[in-house]
Automatic annotation (TrEMBL):
Domain Histidine kinase/HSP90-like ATPase: 287-374
The enzyme's E.C. designation: 2.7.13.3
One term of GO molecular function: protein dimerization activity
Transmembrane feature ranges: 21-41, 47-64, 71-90, 96-113, 120-139, 145-163
Protein name: histidine kinase
Catalytic activity of the protein: ATP + protein L-histidine = ADP + protein N-phospho-L-histidine
Residue intervals of the DUF7134 domain: 24-153
One Gene Ontology CC term in the entry: membrane
Pfam families tied to this protein: DUF7134, HATPase_c, HisKA_3
Length: 377
């Protein structure tokens, strides 16, 4: 309990309090007109001119209720308390107009926009004023209960809206964070794959370019194509990160696009084999299979030493989709998982699947993932 009170006391003001707008002036004008009409038309108003001036004169507190909620509570309720004590001293009835119910807006504002300290102090002031009014003015039990209930309703409404807004904001921030992580993962996958292909083409062009210029020109054309696609997708993703707008880049390929990764005559050769009916795969699993295969291929090209062959095997079963990517190179026994392995593992776990990566028996490197189809749906 003590920790809860400390947390409330230290809570800062909400940072989304709107500035004064035209509706605030309409609110002030509306209550001022209501007080003027009540003062003129209502019968038996104690201290009629003074009550009208009091009701109208305190309406500007509504203009500062968001920026200075506690100060407006103290000014509004404090002035009314002083007036009431003076009226009791002179043996008069309670001074005020029914239109001064706009004070409930101040009670709402202090719990909605005030800091923790302002909320505690402001509600204490309100309770003290309400108690003073009950003591100095003859009231029935129903009036007392009704008065406290109305004050509690105003304060509770502000608190509920405040914490609901905070919860929604935190949820939105979490969603945005998850989206950014996903975009970062896709950015890494896309860039790493294309840059790896560019590096392979450049190496091949440099190796054979001296004796076969035509092959070098083909390699340069491939490099240009890969670089253009990489740049386009990077611009789209960076635009999302900056503006928070939906990305307009090419959709992620699925199992059907795995053939684009195959390079049977490349160095190393890339062979793709798909077993099973991939047409019924859920879209999330279909895209994940492609990304896992793409990133595993990128890692093999970058890190597999002396590799001559990379095999991509995808098996689709009624309940699972399995991805295996293996090379015949030399695995580093001191390897440490980088962003690629971490991103692939997160992608598989998000779909309820598993992923393992490491040196394979018999040499080379193996990435093996299993994705359930039911979770992906």
């Amino acid at each position: 309990m003590r920790e809860s009170w400390r947390a409330l006391w230290r809570e800062p003001r909400p940072d989304d309090a709107p500035a004064r707008v035209w509706r605030d002036w309409v609110l002030v004008a509306g209550f001022s007109i209501a007080a003027l009409l009540e003062g003129i038309l209502a019968p038996d108003v104690p201290w009629r001119p003074f009550a009208m001036v009091l009701a109208i004169g305190l309406t500007p507190t509504l203009l500062w209720r968001r920026t200075h909620p506690l100060a407006m509570i103290v000014v509004g309720f404090g002035v009314v308390t002083v007036v009431q004590l003076v009226a009791v001293w002179f043996g008069r009835q309670e001074v005020g107009l029914a239109s001064m119910l706009y004070f409930l807006v101040l009670v709402y504002a202090v719990t909605r926009w005030g800091s923790g300290r302002e909320v505690v102090i402001g509600l204490a002031v309100v309770m003290a004023v309400a108690t003073t009014s009950i003591v100095t003015t003859p009231s029935t039990l129903g009036d007392v209960i009704g008065g406290y209930a109305v004050l509690a309703l105003a304060a509770g409404s502000g608190a509920i809206l405040r914490y609901r807004t905070t919860a929604n904001r935190r949820q939105l921030e979490q969603i945005r964070s998850e989206e950014r992580v996903g975009l970062a993962r896709d950015l890494h996958d896309v860039v790493a794959h294309h840059v790896s292909a560019i590096a392979v083409q450049a190496q091949m062009g440099r190796t054979v370019g001296a004796r076969d210029p035509a092959v070098a020109l083909e390699a340069l054309a491939s490099i240009e194509d890969e670089a253009s696609r990489t740049l386009a997708q990077m611009r789209a993703m960076v635009g999302v990160l900056r503006a928070g707008t939906p990305a307009e880049y090419a959709p992620v390929g699925g199992v059907a696009a795995l053939s684009s990764l195959a390079q049977p005559d490349g160095r190393p050769a890339v062979v793709v084999h798909v077993d099973g009916d991939a047409s019924a795969l859920p879209a999330t699993v279909d895209q994940a299979v492609f990304r896992l295969a793409q990133e595993s291929l990128t890692n093999a090209r970058r890190h597999a030493r002396e590799a001559t062959r990379i095999e991509i095997d995808v098996t689709v079963e009624p309940d699972h989709a399995r991805v295996r990517v293996r090379d015949d190179g030399t695995a580093d026994p001191l390897w440490q998982p980088g962003y690629g392995i971490v991103g692939m593992t997160e992608r598989a776990e998000m779909l309820g699947g598993t992923l393992a990566a490491g040196p394979a028996e018999g040499g080379g490197w193996l990435v093996a993932a299993e994705l359930p189809l039911r979770s992906g749906a």
